[in-house]
Fold:
Amino acid sequence: MGAQYLDAFVRSLELSAITAVVGSVLGALLAWAVVTGRPDGVLRRVVTSAAGVLAQFGGVTLAFAFLATVGPVGLVTKVLADHGVDALSGGAWIFELPGLVLVYTYFQVPLMVIVFLPALDGLKPQWREAATGLGGTAWTYWRRVAGPVLAPAFLGSLLLLFANAFSAYATAAALVSQGAPIVPLQIRNLQTSEVLLGQQNLARALGFGMVVVVAVVMACYALLQRRTTRWLR
Structure:
């Protein structure tokens, strides 16, 4: 019994780490593309508006959208099957850990854009001009100036995405109807299943474990944010 819950914690940590890394990298690149454009341009307004909406787009609605698109009877799955392509393996993968990674990444990327964009805006043009004036290349600027300045903000954003994925519940609950591959779904089963009735204390223990993990992550995030604020004031 204990190994089952330990595996759920491991899968939750894997899911959170993978989606945090993928979301932070893709989100940072998208945020950089926005920063390089005009501050009042159409691209920035469209991307920031879309990011604000998509970062909150989760739960049953998001799960249904992916099922209707790449699920077993989804539009993309059926179109590929009609052309003799079984690239999505019938769509069953959407109910497993790879499916959760894809769905979670969908709202992790826009969240990264929102939290990392202010750090990119804080880079002063004078820093690049000074580096160029001293004979530095673009690589030198990023390695010696922009990289060290942005590193705490990037790592802090990555930790925030990790905590966001680790504590997410509604999307996974709507997508995974059977089994409990991650801790939030294990807690749900312990609280609602008639077979496991009377094990509410175990559910509380799992919940406390989640609180400890999130508290440690957010404490590290607060320390990194303090350093980011000092550099980008």
